[in-house]
Design a protein that fits this description.
This protein is of the alpha+beta class. The protein contains 13 helices and 3 strands; from the N terminus they run αααααββαβααααααα. The two termini are about 35 Å apart.
């Protein structure tokens, strides 16, 4: 199989997978993008458009009408500058936080131990014939735990009194004082902190929500899936904001700069390499990419190459 055929098959498979995933109603656009290896739906849409698939590169509409892009024309006029329009600061290596991340993962692993002992109740009211749960009552219970008194730790008189209190034989060497132990967890508007953290980690990992609902919801069929998917999307969005602030980024309202797919990023590296070889015009670079990397050339035009060149996405040195 030559490179051109393989590239076309990869694009066709990406489009088919995209369509199949959309038929899975429990998947959000963010989950679909993640499963296809893209950080956001917008980047996936753009790549599908570059693949020449019948998908709007802005909103993801399938088989858009010829004049569909006019709906986005005004938005494009007000778009923020591209990534090549400002100063760049080298960030600390992510590996600096490796031990911190590992510690967090270890804490999450410890949370799993609480799953075996947590017992919860949902308290609420009947409103319009439906139960509205508003408070979570939680405690931890280890029902097979035993508190045992050992004879050698007591005097003879103390042992006889203890056995009388618990109806045990004074001739025995041990007396079971209690079976099971419990720890109060409180009453809150949300599930326990450790369970909330585990559920959040599950959603941030883009795991399917349906198995989680079936495992933890007392009436799985009553779940408002759209609202749940919206919550998962907002969680990942807020996580992105947190990560941006940790890395000194500014979180602002609005669309911000246009994100770039890994494929386009790599195309920028190719373009930079050809510039170093002496090629200057967009047409020359397009022709060279067509000869050496036909799978990329199919999704690029000289105009698109001009845009990518201005992003200044140089490879690491």
């Amino acid at each position: 199989m030559n490179k051109a055929t393989k590239g076309q098959e990869e694009k066709a498979l990406r489009f088919i997978t995209f369509c199949v995933r959309r038929l899975q109603t429990d998947l959000t656009e963010e989950q679909i993008a993640a499963k296809l290896g893209f950080r956001s739906p917008e980047v996936l849409y753009k790549q599908l458009e570059l693949d020449r698939s019948p998908v709007c590169g802005v909103c993801g509409r399938l088989y858009p009408e010829p004049d569909h892009h006019k709906e986005h024309k005004q938005k494009r006029r007000t778009r923020q500058p591209g990534v090549g329009g400002g100063r760049r600061v080298k960030l600390p290596d992510a590996s600096n936080a490796r031990n911190l991340f590992r510690r967090a993962i270890e804490d999450l692993d410890e949370y799993l131990a609480f799953v075996d002992v947590e017992e919860s109740w949902l308290e609420g009211n009947l409103e319009e014939g439906q139960f509205k749960g508003k408070h979570f009552i939680t405690h931890s219970a280890v029902r097979d735990a035993r508190e045992v008194a050992v004879r050698e730790e007591f005097t003879e008189e103390q042992w006889r009194e203890l056995c009388e209190q618990h109806g045990a034989d004074p001739a025995s060497d041990q007396v079971v004082l209690s079976v099971g132990e419990a720890t109060a967890g409180g009453v809150e508007r949300t599930p326990s902190g450790f369970l909330t953290a585990l559920i959040a980690a599950y959603a941030l990992a883009h795991q399917p929500l349906t198995p989680l609902i079936e495992a933890l919801h007392y009436e799985p069929d009553s779940v408002a899936r759209d609202e749940l998917n919206d919550n998962a999307y907002e969680l990942r969005k807020v996580a992105g904001h947190l990560a941006a602030r940790v890395r000194r980024g500014v979180v602002e309202r609005g669309r911000g700069i246009e994100e770039i797919s890994r494929e386009v990023h790599f195309a920028a590296w190719l373009i930079g390499g050809f510039e170093e070889e002496g090629l200057s015009s967009d047409e020359e670079i397009h022709e060279q990419i067509r000869k050496t990397f036909p799978s990329f050339a199919d999704g690029l035009t000289p105009k698109e190459i001009d845009r990518i060149r201005r992003e200044r996405l140089d490879p690491p040195h």
